Amino acid sequence: MENSAENVRSQMRKGVLEYCILSILDKKEAYASSILDELKAANMIVVEGTLYPLLIRQKNQGLLSYRWEESTQGPPRKYYCITDKGRQQLGEMDVAWQEIVDTIRTIKEQQR
Amino acid sequence: MENSAENVRSQMRKGVLEYCILSILDKKEAYASSILDELKAANMIVVEGTLYPLLIRQKNQGLLSYRWEESTQGPPRKYYCITDKGRQQLGEMDVAWQEIVDTIRTIKEQQR
DNA sequence: ATTAGTACTTTGTGTTGCAAGGTATTTGAA
DNA sequence: TTCAAATACCTTGCAACACAAAGTACTAAT
Q1: Averaged pLDDT for residues B49-71
Q2: What's the count of helices (H) and strands (E) in chain B, helices before strands?
Q3: In whole angstroms, what is the distance from residue A106 CA to residue A49 CA?
């Protein structure tokens, strides 16, 4: 209940994470740990307990598929890949995201 | 579970709503129904059952205060007003929002 | 008196992010 | 050989939140 700055960020991440995952996988297939790294690099900090269930949800919705691949070091990796349905959903998310950005701008602009 | 386009929007709204409320009240005090109207005008559709608990939460956190005012037509109105603490939180949210916008841009830009 | 309009409130449900802990595989050092 | 470290994936329990739906209360006009 403390750390309001971090809590603010956590709240805002909600609903945007799915959009980030699909956007990342739209570029190229990836496995969970590498997705985590990319999110961290982009300043969107997420933990494993958030990402894994999310990937499983999106897979169950038919937005993603996956395949196992051996690794040269460490256990095998589950490579996720966006599907046609996932790409369609991503298109809707692009529109929705732009709308929200515009909405915030509209509300903010009236201040002047 | 249907209407994926609307569901996408609903998910993305999560976490941004508090930011919108504080931003609106940072301009001038307002009562719930008028806030609803402003959100609708800005394309951020919200229903009563979402807004009222949110206002109460923010009031309980000390981000807002309110006063009753008689209306010339209809029941009295609860006018909400942002507090110093609310303005401070709004400042943090401004930063958090800009970070998320940048994050999305970063992820998207690598596609080219 | 009754209805319509305005405004505020509450209850129950499903989704989601997260902390914390767990399982499994590989590699390299003791 | 065994044991620790690194990598990777998964699960459980909890709290927060948006929403649908239904409810309460006040006012004004019919």
Answers
A1: 94
A2: 5, 3
A3: 35
Gap from A85 CA to D14 C1', Å: 32
The amino acid sitting at B94 is D
Sequence-separated contacts (24+) of A6-12 with Cβ below 8 Å: A8/B89, A8/B92, A8/B93, A8/B96, A9/A45, A9/B96, A9/B99, A9/B100, A10/B15, A11/B14, A11/B15, A11/B18, A12/B15, A12/B16, A12/B19, A12/B93, A12/B96, A12/B97, A12/B100
Q: Which CA distances in Å does A16 have to A39, A81, B31, B76, B84?
A: 12, 19, 29, 38, 29
Partner-chain residue, chosen from A18, A99, A108, that has the shortest CB–CB distance to B11: A18
Question: Cβ–Cβ of A102/B4 closer than 8 Å?
Answer: no
Q: pLDDT tens digit string along A64-100? A: 999 999 888 789 999 999 999 999 999 999 988 998 9
pLDDT of A2 above 60? no
The structure's pTM equals 0.88
